[in-house]
Amino acid sequence: LGVENSLTKRKLKLAAAAGYERNTDKVEEAVKTIKASDAQAVIMISINKPTAAFAKLYRESGGGAQLYNISVVDPAELVKLAGIKNVHGLGISQVVPYPYQANLPVVREYQAALKKYAPTEHINYTSFEEFLGAKVLVEGLRRAGPNPTRASIVKALASIDHYDLGGTSVSYSATNRVGSRFVEVSVIGGSGKLMK
After folding, report:
1. Sheet holding 91-94: strands in order across?
2. Which three-class secondary structure state does DSSP give residue 190?
3. Which of 36, 100, 134, 184 is the most core-located residue (most Cβ within 10 A)?
């Protein structure tokens, strides 16, 4: 629905839509439908296994559209399941800045904390997003005072407006719980690593 709403806003029409059976990777019918539409771009809202199955079958059947997915997918898992040639160039929407280059203060802070407290873990978008969420929660607790209650924490979090986390900021209110409208697309490169 979100994709359709965004297209309508821009006076564009969806070329085709296709689903698959939830909790499976049975995407054959979806591949046929999308391939027949000759779409220029395919936006997938799916997890690792069905995404990999779609990309593999779509590419191997000659599908050439640009593939996109949401940030819930793991690029390494997609490469493992579908093969690099089938997912090379797949775009993944991201809701936090690129965590692999320490070009923002908060990314440097995240990388240092990961190295110190979880040295065997790898830098990735998921843990970076969780790191940012933890920073917001700590700020909410700080603002809630020495004896926080559920109500005081909710009120404190709603007071966070243009809060700089270290190069990226969040804003909340009683009617806005989204926090950030930041979005960028990373792409699976030829080596299987994400590129900005």
Report:
1. 41-44, 66-69, 91-94, 184-188, 194-195
2. coil
3. 100
